[in-house]
Design brief:
The protein has 412 residues and is an all-alpha fold. The protein has a domain of 114 residues: Tetratricopeptide repeat domain (Serine Threonine Protein Phosphatase 5, Tetratricopeptide repeat), CATH 1.25.40. It is built from 19 helices and no strands.
Length: 412
């Protein structure tokens, strides 16, 4: 299957079949694999029909003495080819969905576009969710996706699973896709739930498959370590009512110690390779939290230093904002505010609720309560997930009564 639009049609056919079949027979044990398998069969059937139709058209054209319909097919751009594609490369991949992600992360598309397109076409995230992940307006992201599909169609870009020797060229984009799936699960950007456990589980499964597929790639191990160390806190992050429990207030006895141990082992193995990268640094930051016996024991200076190193790989305002929070915890809220205020003019920050919340928390700590309330309201206007809205509303009410409790910026 090399045609993205045909693949999307096949997935829609599979989803339509699932609606009727699952309601009658029950949901299968692995719904994702069922959908992918059915979609592939639908795509193969569609391809066979198209081949038969083209054969008839070719025969009719030859009888008329004209050129075949495929003449000049690649007149716009010769399709990128980096090895075996289609079913030839599929057996080397341990997970069907992972194979589709590698397929969709096509080198002919720019990195940001290929990641966004994969999140939409393979991972099933809504355009609004992808826009939130990239901190851009939804119409902007919708236009990017439309332009990407138009380029694929006009350039006749052929999609196929790369051969084993060519997986590394797509690894960076694949890592980003899995990471963003997890972040959408770890802290939902909208809806009624703070945590979307299904997305977290999906990302961990994909990261495991990726680490098994490419055991010599330390960044693959680093990503899996990061997801395990972070997801280990899932059970302690909210109450039965859905209310948020901040990191400093979480019962660390509820953290999954087996996941933490596995994550730390993976991180140590990755670091021994001597090829550092952003996901290893993210994992090292997560390990600083998991290794601390209490919130008070957290080594915030080390976390700030790790974010400073991470900026070399990811020079983004998001990383700098996270460093600001760590600096605030290590050196005091005024030091963190200086960094956040310098980032305030960046257009991405205006669209990120966590930036406004972090700034509000620091303003509250230095006694600038009216400004803190304004910052909380700026976060509320972005309509984050309902539990986040409830947390923000509580903070605003507390400011109306005086200083709210808590020692640092809100961490989940």
């Amino acid at each position: 299957m090399r045609d993205l639009e045909a693949a999307e049609d096949a997935v829609q056919d599979a989803c339509a079949l699932a609606v009727s079949k699952w309601s009658a027979e029950g949901v299968p044990a692995n719904p994702g694999s069922w959908l992918i398998g059915v979609a592939r069969h639908k795509a193969v059937d569609r391809m066979r029909r198209d081949i038969k139709r083209r054969e008839k058209e070719d025969a009719a054209t030859r009888e008329a003495g004209g050129p075949g319909p495929d003449a000049g097919r690649y007149g716009y751009l010769e399709p990128y080819d980096d090895g075996p594609s289609g079913d030839e490369g599929w057996e080397s991949l341990p997970d069907d969905e992972l194979g589709l992600i590698f397929l969709c992360c096509h080198p002919s598309l720019d990195p940001a576009t290929r990641v966004a397109l994969t999140l939409r076409s393979v991972c099933g995230l809504a355009t609004s969710e992808i826009a939130a992940a990239f901190l851009v307006p939804e119409p902007t992201m919708a236009q990017r996706l439309v332009r990407a599909k138009r380029k694929i169609r006009q350039a006749r870009i052929s999609f196929g699973v790369p051969g084993p020797d060519n997986l590394a060229a797509r690894l960076g984009s694949v890592l980003r896709v899995v990471y963003l799936v997890f972040t959408q699960g770890h802290m939902a950007t909208g809806g009624n739930e703070l945590i979307r456990g299904g997305l977290c589980d999906q990302a961990v499964r994909l990261a495991r498959a990726l680490a098994a597929l490419m055991p010599q790639e330390p960044e693959a191990a680093g990503l899996l370590a990061l997801l395990l160390l972070t997801d280990a806190r899932r059970g302690a992050r909210s109450r039965d009512t859905g209310d948020i429990i901040l990191l400093e207030d979480q019962d660390r006895g509820c953290w999954d110690r087996a996941m933490i141990s596995e994550g730390e082992t993976l991180l140590e193995r990755a670091l021994r390779a001597g090829r550092p990268g952003p996901y290893q640094l993210h994992a090292a930051i997560a390990a600083c939290h998991s290794c601390a016996a209490s919130a008070a024991d957290t080594d915030w200076r080390e976390i700030a230093a790790l974010y400073g190193e991470l900026i070399r790989y990811e020079p983004t305002p998001v990383v700098e904002a996270n460093r600001a929070v760590a600096v605030a915890m290590a050196e005091g809220p005024a030091a963190g505010l200086v960094i956040l205020d310098a980032l305030g003019a960046h257009p991405q920050m205006s669209r990120w609720p966590q930036f406004h919340i972090a700034r509000a928390e620091l303003l509250r700590r230095v006694g600038r309560f009216a400004e803190a309330s304004d910052a909380y309201r700026a976060a509320l206007r972005l309509e984050p997930a309902v539990p986040e809205q409830a947390f923000i509303g509580q903070r605003i009410r507390e400011l109306g009564d005086g200083p709210a409790r808590g020692s640092g910026p809100a961490s989940r």
